[in-house]
Amino acid sequence: MKGTASHGKKSGKKNFVFCRRCGKRTFHVRKKKCSSCGYGASPRMRKYSWQVN
Ligand SMILES: [Zn+2]
Question: DSSP alpha helices (H): ranges in the chain?
């Protein structure tokens, strides 16, 4: 290995894939839920009162 080889163990497992609803890479594969829009968990968009758009 040469240069910055080990930046932690950030290789191998990937838990997040692209969400088909919001388009971000925030859909958790194992949880089957998007952490951005809530796709998979609820039919409605993930929304919080403290959320500022
Ligand atoms: Zn999403």
Answer: none
- Between CA 42 and CA 32 the distance in angstroms is 11
Residue 10 confidence class, pLDDT cut points 50, 70, 90: low
| Domain that residue 26 falls in | 16-53
Q: What percent of the chain has pLDDT above 90? A: 58
- Report the separation in Å between the CA atom of 35 and the middle of ligand 1, taken as the mean of its atom positions: 7
Calculate how far, in angstroms, residue 8's C-alpha sits from the geometric centre of ligand 1. Answer: 27
| CATH number of the domain bearing residue 50 | 2.20.25.30
Distance 18 CA to ligand 1 centre (A): 8
Q: Is residue 39 predicted with pLDDT exceeding 80? A: yes
